[in-house]
Amino acid sequence: MTEEESKNKEENQEENKERHNKTPVWEWIIAAVGLILVVGSIGLTLYRAMTEETTPPILEFSIDSIEPTANGYLVKFQVKNTGNQTAAALTVEGELKNGADSAETSTSTLAYAPANSVRRGGLFFTKNPQQFDLQIRATGYEEP
What we know:
Distance between the termini: 77 Å
Number of strands: 6
Radius of gyration: 32 Å
Number of helices: 2
CATH topology of the largest domain: Immunoglobulin-like
Oligomer: single chain
Largest sheet: 3 strands, antiparallel
Helix content: 25-40%
Strand order of the largest sheet: 1-2-5
Strand content: over 45%
Structural class: alpha+beta
């Protein structure tokens, strides 16, 4: 190999190295978008943590259905937590009322009712809930 061929070969190798070392523009664009998303997520989380007022669980109950079972009736309900704190071990009580008198009571415990979420559960009764005034309420919870 002549000196000129050797020199050309070295120049070609250097050009190849330079081409391989350059990061393509599309990689920079994707990296910038990723950085913006991460910084934005962290910023939003910090903003909400510093500006949101802490409220206890705010629980709203509604009845989904009443179904007959082999041993009585199942009242399926949902609870919506509109507060920004989680209620753990949420105890729910359903009471069948006949005027001022209590005809029957049933309780259920939901493991978690996270902030701004909806959870479902059920209460069992031996008497037909449709013949009474059914009232559902929370009787207690734990802070997780």
